[in-house]
Design a protein that fits this description.
Length: about 150
């Protein structure tokens, strides 16, 4: 009888410990729960906010908390990027994430070279940039990485 009670007690303790050890989900506030300064900083994402994962919301909240300490130029750049991101469909977002990962996987020297090439191109006057004729296939962002096929695919 005592052995049975001891066995039941041990089982109850084990079950209790297992219940306490369960993982609690990461909670992130809904749009209406954000502070006014956070809503202002994250305004371009308002429509998508409640559909975002908790991890994404926490990332954006971190950005909004640093937002007021940025210069006006940096704030407008971040807002423009948020608007651009919010306009992308899910497939375009996935492709953008894939390209970002591919760029991060490149050696630092190669990344810097691509960045420098892009800046040189951006600094050319419009007439100095290579025009695309109607017969050429349109270029997609990330085409410069096609030689890195093993990284992208």
């Amino acid at each position: 009888m005592a052995a049975t009670r001891l066995l039941i007690l041990i089982c109850c303790l084990l079950l209790s410990a297992a219940a306490d050890a369960r993982i609690t989900p990461v909670l992130a506030p809904g749009w209406s729960e954000l502070a006014p300064h956070q809503q202002q900083a994250l305004a371009p994402l308002a429509e998508d906010w409640d559909g975002m994962s908790a991890v994404s919301r926490l990332k954006w909240i971190g950005i909004s908390n640093r937002y007021e300490h940025l210069s006006a130029d940096e704030q407008s750049r971040i807002q423009a990027r948020m608007r651009d991101w919010a306009r992308l469909d899910p497939d375009a977002r996935r492709r953008a994430r894939d390209r970002y990962r591919a760029m991060q996987a490149l050696p630092a020297e190669r990344r810097n070279n691509l960045h420098e090439e892009w800046e040189r191109y951006q600094n050319l006057p419009p007439e100095g940039r290579r025009p695309q004729d109607a017969t050429s296939a349109p270029r997609r962002p990330g085409d410069a990485l096609q030689g890195q096929a093993n990284i992208i695919r």
